[in-house]
Amino acid sequence: MKAVKWFAPRDMRVVEIDEPEPQPHEALIRIESVGVCGSDLHYYEEGRIGHSRITDPLILGHEYAGIVERVGAEADPELVGKRVAVEPGIPCGKCEWCRTGHYNVCRDMSFPGGPPHDGALREYIAVHAGFCYPVPDILSAAEAAMIEPLAVAVHTVELGQVKPGATAAILGLGPLGLLTAQVAKLAGVHTLYGTDLLDYRVDAGTRFGVDCAFNAVKEDTVKTILRETKGRGVDVVFDTARSSETAGLALQVARPAGRCVLTGISGEESDPMPVSVARRKELTVQWCRRFRFNFPTAIELVASGRIDVRSLITHSFPLERTCEAFELVSNSSDGVLKASIDQ
Ligand SMILES: [Zn+2]
Ligand SMILES: [Zn+2]
To answer: Which domains, from first to last, does the chain contain?
Structure first.
């Protein structure tokens, strides 16, 4: 079968590999759609995220959906023939964190598309059947692949402990920021600020629930939000950017005793942050690591029409043109929000 392997920064090639054989607890999935994520881009461009570095050729891709072709002897046979959104990270299930509800920070997590585990940019994958979530028929494959980033947005907003009528800001209006904007509004945010460095994403912000969206190149993020909130700052700040600067900005635009949720991945080992600002305001700074138990909610939000993932998918490419898709997203060309690889 065909797969796309990363060999070096900006060098991915279609290769032939063996079709996987599902283990007793696994499902064999014919992959239909894989979304290109900001974290994939770090690997694509630099071969690393912080100290997590690709050493051997690797298949990227972790936002995916497909049809269950067959299952192993111990897996649920009802899954066969169903379209599933797959929760990509498989935790060990045994450690202290897995047993206390924090499986997303399991140290033995096997996460596809992060070294050394191959990801989903291929025709078939065998995965733990317990992490395959059937989706209603009304969801297309590309929409089902969006359940993964939506689960991140749901977890992000849940960590923000948003209260009805709250004010909030989102720094970074890429797909994750635009999903977070929608979920934040559903959770009760009243006035939502949003920034990005690209005009077309600022415009997208206004379409997806941001009340006051502006370009952070043209207007100073901190001054603008403090001016608009009469110096108070916002209750909750979500950092959804792929940047080293936004965490520091988040601390500055949060109100005293406010909360910052840092979800975006800068790709660096350390980012600068004005810690004295955070201390004087007694901020709660909450990092977000992917998601935990959020797939059912994410599916329900899309199936019920309350969250629009479809309009975020602006580009589709076949597997053979995966590199083009990554270049497009890497260069933010052609108004791209989410690009997906469909087969
Ligand atoms: Zn992702
Ligand atoms: Zn574990």
So the answer is: 2-146+309-342 (3.90.180.10), 152-287 (3.40.50.720)
CA of 179 to the centre of ligand 1 (A): 12
Q: Which ligand is nearest to the CA of 49?
A: 1
Q: How far is the CA of 48 from the centre of ligand 1 (A)?
A: 15
Spacing, Cα 296 to ligand 1 middle (Å):
17
- Maximum distance among all Cα pairs of the chain, rounded to whole angstroms: 62
Which pTM value belongs to this model? 0.97
Measured in Å, residue 141 CA sits from the centre of ligand 1 at: 16
Cα 329 from chain centre: 14
CA proximity to 79, closest of 67, 63, 88: 67
Q: What are phi and psi of 276, to 5 degrees?
A: -65, -35
pLDDT digits (tens, 9 = 90+) for 30-82: 999 999 998 899 999 999 998 899 999 999 999 999 999 999 999 999 999 99
- Per-residue tokens: 37: 């994520």
Which of 227, 286, 279 is closest to 257 using CA atoms? Answer: 279
How far does residue 228's CA lie from ligand 1's centre (Å)? 32
